[in-house]
Amino acid sequence: MLTNWTRRHGRLRLAAAPVAALAISMATVGAARATEPITIGFGMAETGGLAANGKAALVAMQIWEKDTNAHGGLLGRPVKLVYYDDQSNPAMVPGLYSKLLDVDKVDLAVSGYGTTQIAPAMPIVIAHKLAFLSLFGLDVNKEFHYDRYFSVVPTGGEHPSQSFSTGFFDLAAQQTPKPKTVAIIAANSEFAIHAADGAREQAKARGLEIVYDKTYPPSTTDFSPIVQAIQAAHPDIVFVASYPPDSAGMVRAAHEAGLQTKMFGGGMVGLQFTTFKTQLGPELNGIVNYDFWQPAKTMQFPGVLNFLKVYQAEAEKAGVDPLGYYLPPYAYAYLQVLGDAVTATHGLDQAKLAAYLRSHTFSTVVGDVKFGPNGEWAEPRVLEVQFHGIGGNGLDQFKTDARQTILWPGKYATGKMIYPYTEASQVANGTSAK
C-alpha cells in the first residue's frame, strides 16, 4: 500500500528523469559544439595573374591555422579555413563571399589578396555587418567608409594612397639637382589608379610638373610604345604603378629603350616576388621601388624569422615563392590579429570584434599593428628599396638584403642610394653616366 509520501515523492523522482535526460542532451550538444571548428572564409587567387602571391599567402595562412590548432584553437575550438579560388578575377568575388556567408555560413571572413579582389567583397561584407580584415588593399575604404573595415598593409595614415609613394618622392627630392618633372604611368585597375592618384598629390605638393600621365589596359603586353612616349616627354623621374606581369614588361621595355631618368619605379608590384627577381636579375639594378619587408636587422620583428623558416619548408613542397619575404608574413599576421581579437572578446560577436580591433595594438610577426579611424594602419611604414649589384639570375643573392638596400624611412634604412643618379642617368644596367 502506497502512502501519500510515497506517491508524492515517487512522482518527483519520475519527473526528475526527463530533466536529467535533458541535461545530458544539452551537455552532449555543448560538447559537440566545442569540437565544431570556428570557420574563417575567404577567396584567394590560386590561378590567374595574382596567383603567384595568392598561393604563397595561402601557405602562410595554413601555417597559422596549424599553429593555432596546435595551441588549442580559439575559444577552445579548432579553427578551419574555408576558401575558394577567385581566379584573380574581381567579378568572381561577390559570388564567392555570398556563398561563404549564406551557404557555408562561416563564422568569420577575411579578404583575399589585393585591392582589386577586396573592393568587390565590400558590399557583401557590409550587408552582413562583419568585422573585416583585408590583405594588401590600397585605400579600399576610401569609397565605402565602413567602420568595421581593417586593412593589413603598411600604407596607412589619413591618406593611404599618398603614403604609398611618399618615400619615392622624398628620395627624389634629395637628388642634385632636384627633379622638376615627373611621368606617371599606371594600369587601369583599382590599385594602380589609387597609387597614381597619390603620386599626383605628391607631385603637386612638391611643385613637380607632370609631363606625362597615362593609364594602360590591364591586358597590355607590349610596353615599348609606352616607354617611348615617356622618353619623348623627358621626365626627370618616372613613377610606375603596375601589377606583376606589367612590372616585368615595363622593366624590360625601359632597358630596351635605354630610358634616361633620375629615378624609375615607385609602385611596381611584382618586383618584390622571388620569381620576378630571378627572372629579371641584373635588369633590376638601379630601380627604386616600394617594399614592405626585407631580411634586414631593422625589420626582424619577434617571430618573423621563425615563421619564415617554417614557411620556406612548406613553400618548397607547395612550389610557391621560395623566400616569401613580401606577402606571407602579412598573411600570417592578419590572422594573428583576428585570432587575438576573438580571444580577447571571448566570442564571435562582430560588433565587439570591430570595437576591439579599433581600440587595441596587436603584436604580430610584422611588428606592432594599430588601426586608425579609417581602418588603415595608424602609422604608415612603406619602405623604398634600391636594387644594386645583382649579377645573373641566381636565387642565393636575394636571400639577404645585400642586393636590396632600404633607403627610406630612416628608422629602417640600411644604407644610401648606391647609384647617385645624375641628369644623364639611364635605367639600362642601373648605371649613371658621369
Distance between the termini: 119 Å
Write out the strand line-up for the largest beta sheet, numbering strands in chain order.
Answer: 7-6-8-9-10-13-14
Tell me the CATH architecture of the largest domain. Answer: 3-Layer(aba) Sandwich
Overall radius of gyration: 26 Å
By CATH, the topology of the largest domain is Rossmann fold
**Major sheet, described briefly?**
7 strands, mixed
Mean pLDDT: 91
β-strand amount: 15-25%
State the CATH superfamily name of the largest domain: Response regulator
Task: Please report the total strand number as a whole number.
Answer: 16
- The total of helices stands at 15
Low-confidence stretches: 1-16, 27-32, 428-434
Under CATH at level 1, the class of the largest domain stands as Alpha Beta
Overall helicity: 40-55%
Category from helices, strands and their pairing: alpha/beta
Overall 3D geometry? globular
Total domain modules: 3
